[in-house]
């Protein structure tokens, strides 16, 4: 029987998993990878900020960076994993877009470039997009699964290529590059008021560094912008499927709502909702049944049924919360399917537990 | 320990923890508890999205964002006109890009200004997600390397002095009792101490589950037995995670139970729980 997960994992070329921290997004991304590999696809999962234990579970060790590593799996397809190395990705990009090796070296030795490529926020978003583009054009893989950063602004990376292109075209940036005001004279009285103002805040050293960077970079921004546009087009293409991952807690659902509205704002179709870490049910009993049993018994039996009552109350609350979330989401994306998985008894700590998660997600669910 | 005593041990308490651990709710509960113990309290949020906290006459809330911090900073230096120009031309983003980490520094600088001007007896900062907590407190140091002179260099110095002084500022890490968040908390705790010389406050372990009752005979219904086995395994995993935390970190732990509440009711009940835990603390 073909399930929602099968159709997504067989048709997509890129899957982007979004969700807030603590919902198990990296595990879900890995589980989707396992499912697709079982169906014979050659999958690479790129994670931005994996938890150490999970990294161990999927075979990413501390030494791993940009170079994908193959996970040992008994499937017809392949599963590879990679972790974003911002600095290395940026360096490669500079090397590839630079007209000469000397120019590339000049850029990479610049103090501003070094702090830019180390800083995590905006650069990381852009490099994630750039890396995604690189992997998508890598003939070793036919499906790239992206585990986005665990922040509220995770979708910023979708717009980061355009933002960088905009930055490079900013009039003040052009002013810094302009040869007539270039060189060391730039910190002199010839500066325009706006540059003087910025300089008074950040200090003239910093601005001189930026100017030197931008001059070394000059001419390369055309290629940068071209790639930025290619990434943006790919992310909005039909082969890229977006998945929102959530847990049933009220704060996680609130964040999931935010991702749904962001996707809608960006004009991107949502293909799948994943409700992860659902409290499990055992049998058909309910919290009402268990409360009743607890009140009619004593000793061990009463203690047991009170425990079960509390567990099933959690399950009922979780299901009600997710139901309401799915209904809200379907006012924007009417057809979006839901896949769910329970909180496992033990923390995810091996490929086996990711396999269990993949199996749970793959089970066809009746539509709500 | 009396809450009053606990909260006056430093003037600024930066609360940090990964997504899903309940950082904003704990920050709100700490601020409420501080106000309830008679201290003028300022709850600083770094994000417009925060939890609703019950009203208290001694409790004031403020949101600090990088953009606002920059314009406030410029105004305080007599550059109000400039700050309006910058805001209008979209240069704020450019300035922040020019000096990565500047936005973090400006936020910390604003908090330092609150502390200096004695805006409150206690300042609770609903901080960034833990991964970002290291970036936030490391920003002044990194920025010092790029910008040694000028007002930013000076600002970085002042913030670094505050961060390294445990009598002025501490960081409180929030975790949940599971292996992955505990491992990350340990990593971040070491990182914060080593890189910036931060002094850590007691740890908060949020969303603890009650123990599973021991049964003299296993449940006879198969579903019930499976459910009981699941609950027992979850509880054992929680105990193992707490064991790892206690072995690795010397800080006292404030353990609070998971609540099926949301919003102000959650914050209020967490404040009660934290007060109880503090009372048991040496």
Helix-strand layout with pairing:
The complex is a heterodimer of chains A (368) and B (282).
Chain A: H1 4-11, E1 14-18, H2 25-38, E2 42-47, H3 52-57, E3 69-70, E4 78-83, H4 86-97, H5 101-109, H6 111-118, H7 121-136, E5 143-147, H8 156-169, H9 171-177, H10 193-202, H11 204-217, H12 221-235, E6 240-246, H13 250-265, E7 270-278, H14 287-295, H15 299-332, E8 338-342, H16 351-362
Parallel strand pairs in A: 1-5, 1-6, 2-4, 2-5, 6-7, 7-8
Antiparallel strand pairs in A: 3-4
Helix pairs in contact in A: 1-2, 2-16, 4-5, 4-7, 5-11, 7-8, 7-12, 8-12, 10-11, 13-15, 14-15
Chain B: H1 3-7, E1 12-16, H2 23-36, E2 41-45, E3 59-63, H3 66-76, H4 80-88, H5 91-98, H6 102-116, E4 122-126, H7 130-146, H8 150-163, E5 169-175, H9 179-196, E6 203-208, H10 222-248, E7 253-257, H11 263-280
Parallel strand pairs in B: 1-4, 1-5, 2-3, 2-4, 5-6, 6-7
Instruction: Tell me the strand percentage band of chain B.
Output: 5-15%
SSE string of chain A, helices as H and strands as E: HEHEHEEHHHHEHHHHHEHEHHEH
User: End-to-end span of chain A in angstroms?
Assistant: 19 Å
Shape of chain B: elongated
Mean pLDDT of chain B: 88
What is Rg of chain B? 21 Å
Tell me the number of strands of chain A.
Answer: 8
Name the pair of protein chains with the most residues at their interface, and give those residue counts.
A-B, 67 and 69 residues
Structure annotation, total helices of chain B: 11
Report on this model:
The complex is a heterodimer of chains A (about 375) and B (about 280). By secondary structure, chain A is α/β, with parallel strands linked by helices. Chain A is about 55% helix and about 10% strand. Chain A has 16 helices and eight strands. The radius of gyration of chain A is 25 Å and the shape is elongated. Chain B has about 280 residues and is α/β, with parallel strands linked by helices. Chain B has a single domain, classed as Rossmann fold (3-Layer(aba) Sandwich). In chain B, helix 6 (about 100-115) crosses helix 8 and helix 9 (about 180-195) runs parallel beside helix 10. The mean pLDDT of chain B is about 90. At the A-B interface, helix 3, helix 6, helix 7, helix 10 and helix 11 of A face helix 4, helix 5, helix 7, helix 8 and helix 9 of B.
């Amino acid at each position: 029987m073909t399930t929602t997960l099968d159709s997504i994992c067989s048709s997509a070329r890129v899957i982007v998993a979004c969700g807030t921290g603590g919902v198990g997004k990296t595990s879900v991304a890995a589980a989707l990878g396992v499912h697709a590999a079982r169906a014979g696809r050659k999958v690479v999962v790129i994670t931005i900020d994996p938890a150490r234990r999970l990294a161990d579970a999927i075979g990413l060790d501390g030494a791993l960076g940009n170079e994908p590593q193959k996970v040992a799996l008994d499937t017809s397809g392949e599963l590879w994993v990679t972790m974003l190395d911002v600095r290395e990705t940026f360096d490669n990009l500079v090397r590839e877009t630079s007209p000469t090796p000397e120019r590339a070296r000049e850029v990479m030795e610049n103090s501003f470039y070094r702090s830019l490529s180390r800083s995590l926020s905006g650069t990381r978003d852009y490099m994630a997009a750039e890396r995604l583009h690189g992997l998508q054009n890598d003939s070793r893989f036919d499906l790239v699964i992206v585990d986005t950063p665990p922040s509220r602004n995770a979708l910023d990376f979708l717009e980061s290529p355009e933002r960088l292109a905009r930055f490079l075209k900013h009039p003040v940036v052009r002013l810094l590059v302009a040869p007539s005001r270039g060189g060391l004279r730039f910190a002199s009285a010839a500066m325009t008021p706006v540059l003087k103002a910025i300089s008074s805040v950040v200090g003239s050293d910093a601005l001189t560094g930026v100017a030197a960077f931008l001059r070394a970079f000059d001419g390369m921004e055309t290629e940068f912008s071209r790639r930025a546009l290619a990434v943006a087009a790919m992310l909005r293409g039909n082969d890229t499927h977006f998945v929102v991952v959530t847990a049933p807690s009220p704060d996680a659902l609130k964040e999931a709502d935010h991702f749904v509205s962001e996707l809608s704002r960006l004009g991107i179709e949502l293909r799948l909702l994943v409700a992860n870490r659902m409290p499990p049910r055992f049998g058909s009993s309910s919290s009402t049944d268990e409360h009743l049993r607890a009140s009619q018994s004593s000793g061990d039996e009463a203690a047991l049924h009170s425990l079960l009552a509390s567990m099933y109350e959690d399950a009922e609350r979780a299901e009600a919360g997710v139901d309401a979330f799915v209904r809200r989401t379907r006012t924007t994306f009417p057809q979006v399917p839901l896949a769910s998985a329970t909180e496992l008894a033990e923390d995810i700590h091996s490929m086996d537990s990711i396999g269990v998660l993949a199996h749970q997600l793959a089970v066809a669910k009746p539509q709500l | 320990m009396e809450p009053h005593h606990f909260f006056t041990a430093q003037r600024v308490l930066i609360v940090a923890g990964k997504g899903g651990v309940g950082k904003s709710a704990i920050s709100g509960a700490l601020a409420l508890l501080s106000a309830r113990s008679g201290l003028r309290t300022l709850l600083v949020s770094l994000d417009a999205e925060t939890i609703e906290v019950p009203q208290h006459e001694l409790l004031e809330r403020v949101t600090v964002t990088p953009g606002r911090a920059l314009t406030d900073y410029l105004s305080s230096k007599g550059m109000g006109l400039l700050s309006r120009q910058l805001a209008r031309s979209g240069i704020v983003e450019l300035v922040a890009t020019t000096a990565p980490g500047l936005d973090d520094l400006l936020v910390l600088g604003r908090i330092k200004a609150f502390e200096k001007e004695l805006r409150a007896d206690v300042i609770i900062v609903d901080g960034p997600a833990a991964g970002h907590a290291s970036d936030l407190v490391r920003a002044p140091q990194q920025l010092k390397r790029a910008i040694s002179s000028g007002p930013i260099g000076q600002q970085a110095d002042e913030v670094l002095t505050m961060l390294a002084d445990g009598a002025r500022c501490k960081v409180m890490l929030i975790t949940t009792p599971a292996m992955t968040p505990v491992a990350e908390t340990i990593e971040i705790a070491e990182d914060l101490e080593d890189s910036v010389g931060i002094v850590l406050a007691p740890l908060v372990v949020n969303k603890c589950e009650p123990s599973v009752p021991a049964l003299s005979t296993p449940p006879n219904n198969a579903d019930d037995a499976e459910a009981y086995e699941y609950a027992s395994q979850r509880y054992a995993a929680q105990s193992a995670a707490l064991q790892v935390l206690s072995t690795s970190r010397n800080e006292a732990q404030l353990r609070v139970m998971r609540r099926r509440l949301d919003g102000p009711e959650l914050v209020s009940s967490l404040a009660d729980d934290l007060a109880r835990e503090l009372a048991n603390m040496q």
